[in-house]
Design a protein that fits this description.
The chain has about 300 residues and is α/β, with parallel strands linked by helices. The protein has 10 helices and 7 strands. α1 crosses α9 and α5 packs parallel to α6. The longest helix is centred in the C-terminal third of the chain and has 23 residues. The structure holds nicotinamide-adenine-dinucleotide (NAD).
Length: about 300
């Protein structure tokens, strides 16, 4: 039987701080396919995440489909906004949540992987993180600082990860990032430059697939996911409207669940997908394919006659 087998592979999923988002769902599916999974957690969220894990409150969601429990091989403090420790501003490095941590930068965590597991320790790298300081502002009222901050944390971070992790991936390795339809269509309210962030991620997927494919033999893909009420999306404030809109107007009139994105991520990381690179794969019940919302045609049945 054809199945996804990630046995013997190690993954790094960056952007996990609870069990409500895509990163967690991806980590779980990768583990269900047999991979060992390490996660990267943003320092400001690390304390809460560790408490959640220790308190047993995630026990139910840690249960794997085939039996057993999800275990993280390592949890790295990881801040994707910084490439090298020397470049981190002193007010960050010396702040309460950062000062006791090992090197949390992109290069620092790549180096820790090598120190912990030896040369070429990884097969799968997932970028499931975003931060837009002014996401609640319309693009029309977004400052330069807010816009560049969003790009730095949410899309350059992926370029940096490919740069710094590709050299330590084993043969057949792959990268994945998470995008949203606002990259290519106007989604009112998705502000602060976050739509531009996603457009950059998708564009970078194509050029990085070429460059890193030729230089390191790795694959680079992106999933454009439907709306999900994760912690990050809930903070934006109107994700439930996007979820309802998706359910009412998609070819498949239902909400996506995070496990569907997780399963696609596991497939894309697997030997079944060795022909796929430079692609944006939609996991959104088809909403991206629609040009006009069916609500514009209240009497849909009439159109069939
Ligand atoms: P989430 O809250 O589970 O994940 C976002 C994570 O990013 C959090 O764990 C947060 O701590 C982390 N983070 C923020 N800044 C960081 C930094 N500088 N360094 C490291 N980590 C940092 O939310 P999610 O919605 O599952 O988001 C995961 C990805 O999916 C994001 O790229 C998001 O844009 C994308 N996405 C989300 C939706 C949605 O509706 N939720 C739809 C499409 C795409």
């Amino acid at each position: 039987m054809l199945g996804i087998d990630l046995g013997g592979k190690r993954a790094f999923v960056a952007g996990v701080a609870d069990d409500g988002g895509f990163g967690f769902a991806i980590a779980k599916k990768l583990a269900e396919a047999g991979a060992s999974v390490c996660v990267g957690t943003w320092p400001p969220a690390l304390g809460v995440f560790t408490k959640l894990l220790d308190s047993g409150r995630m026990k139910e969601s840690m249960r794997l489909a085939g039996g057993g429990e999800l275990e993280f091989e390592r949890i790295y403090a990881f801040d994707a906004e910084h490439d090298l420790l020397d470049e981190v501003p002193a007010e960050v490095r010396e702040s309460r949540r950062y000062k006791a941590l090992p090197d949390f930068t992109v290069q620092g965590v790549a180096d820790q992987f090598v120190a912990d597991f030896g040369e070429r320790p990884l097969d799968i790298v997932i970028h499931s993180l975003a931060n837009g300081p002014e996401v609640r502002n319309p693009l029309l009222r977004t400052s330069r600082r807010g816009y560049l901050g969003a790009i730095s944390a949410s899309s350059y971070s992926f370029v940096s990860m490919v740069q710094r992790f590709a050299p330590i991936l084993r043969e057949g390795g792959s990268f994945l990032s998470l995008s949203y339809m606002a990259s290519e269509r106007a989604v009112p309210g998705y502000g602060g430059g976050m739509s531009s962030v996603k457009a950059a991620l998708e564009s970078d997927t194509r050029l990085l697939s070429w460059e890193a494919g030729r230089e390191y033999g790795v694959r680079v893909n992106c999933i454009s996911a439907g709306a999900l009420a994760s912690r990050a999306a809930s903070a934006v404030g109107f994700v439930n409207l996007l979820i309802d809109y998706g359910r009412n107007n998609s070819p498949l009139p239902e909400s996506i669940h995070a496990g569907e994105v997780g399963a696609t991520a596991a497939f894309l990381a697997s030997p079944l997908a060795t022909g796929i690179t430079g692609s944006v794969v939609y996991v959104d019940k088809g909403i991206h394919a629609m040009g006009i919302a069916p609500a514009a045609f209240p009497d849909l049945e009439d159109l069939k006659s």
